[in-house]
Design a protein that fits this description.
Helix content is 63%, strand content 0%. With 78 residues, it is mainly alpha-helical. The two termini are 24 Å apart.
Length: 78
């Protein structure tokens, strides 16, 4: 999951570009409901199967996390 591991390289990237990082990075656990957390891994496995991604890339990781978040959010609201 995106979070504290990603913050150091994002900070370096923004610093190198001379752009102020005017947002915070935190783990997904900070915004998940308990219902989302319960179904996260199973849903993520299904997202990975549905997307059929072959290469491990940061952009793919972001898409998988976003899609998993949306599916668990929708499922936990119904």
């Amino acid at each position: 999951m995106i979070g504290l591991v990603d913050k150091p390289w994002l900070t370096k990237l923004f610093h190198a570009a001379g752009i102020e990082m005017d947002f915070n990075v935190s783990s997904l656990e900070m915004i998940h409901s308990p219902a989302q957390m319960e179904q996260w891994h199973e849903t993520k496995d299904q997202v990975l199967a549905d997307m059929d991604l072959k290469r491990h890339r940061a952009s793919y990781d972001a898409m998988v996390i976003q899609e998993t978040y949306m599916r668990t959010l929708n499922d936990s609201e119904t």
